[in-house]
Amino acid sequence: MIVQGDVLTNEGPKAIEEIKEGDIVINLGNRPCRVVKVEKADVTEVIRFQNNPDLLVSRDSGLATRYGMLEGETVKPHA
Hints:
The chain has about 80 residues and is mostly beta strands. About 0% of the residues lie in helices and about 45% in strands. The strands form four sheets. Strands 1-7-6 form a three-stranded antiparallel sheet, with no helix packed on it. A two-stranded antiparallel sheet has the order 2-3. A two-stranded antiparallel ribbon has the order 4-5.
């Protein structure tokens, strides 16, 4: 789950906090996809990326990488 950061939409990048039901986002296959539900959840741990520090993802998320899916729990902290 994206906690903070931008999501690519058909209108360009948009802060995750601004995404609402009915918006069109671009999925991993570069295809437009309509948002059908927006949920809020409590998050206790996040992952911050060295090359994109404005993006926060909950640690219990699956992460799509160029090498395939990666479970957030397996990501090691950067020293």
